[in-house]
TrEMBL record:
Annotated gene: hsp20
Keywords, comma-separated and alphabetical: Stress response
Family indicated by similarity: Belongs to the small heat shock protein (HSP20) family.
Top-rank taxon, per record: Bacteria
Protein name in UniProt: Heat shock protein
Length: 165
């Protein structure tokens, strides 16, 4: 098993403690980690992502998608077989067991939509960064105070001309 020491990164960054703790927890994958169902994560644009999960045999009614506190949860549970004749399965190669798969979402990532086609569940995500969080250019001024002009709108009747002494 590989181990990575992220402590040198802590001293070179500010405010990324949560990110590094998530990386630490992701790196500590035990042998009993769930591998079902298989999934892909792809980047479809600059701020767009897609999570694709293989859910062969599941209907949209048997699947649920929930987002809560930056965690995307995908659940699937097969409905009980309701039929007149009970069939006997000789070999089960298509897994139809219940599952729950969780994904940690970064801040400002929202679920845009979901679709099910050809046994694949596609969940589209988009990152919407608020204007206050976007980078902005800060002007640099010199130490010399710049004179400021103040324009005041006043009635001409109230304004007196300066008197010469």
């Amino acid at each position: 098993m590989r181990t990575f020491d992220l402590s040198p990164l802590y001293r070179n960054t500010v405010g990324f403690d949560r990110l590094f703790s998530l990386l630490d927890s992701a790196g500590n994958v035990e042998g009993g980690a769930p591998t079902y169902p298989p999934y892909n994560i792809e980047r479809t644009g600059e701020n767009a992502y897609r999570v694709t999960v293989a859910v062969a045999g599941f209907t949209p009614e048997e699947l649920s998608i929930e987002v809560k506190e930056n965690t995307l949860s995908l659940r699937g549970e097969k409905a009980a077989q309701a039929g007149g004749e009970a069939s006997q399965v000789l070999y089960r190669g298509i897994a139809a067991r219940a599952f729950e798969r969780r994904f940690q979402l970064a801040d400002h990532v929202e679920v845009k939509g979901a679709s099910l086609e050809n046994g694949l569940l596609h969940v589209d995500l988009v990152r919407n960064i608020p204007e206050a969080k976007k980078p902005r250019l800060i002007p640099i001024t010199t130490g010399v105070a710049q004179p400021q002009t103040i324009e005041a709108k006043a009635d001409t009747a109230e304004v007196e001309a300066p008197r010469a002494a």
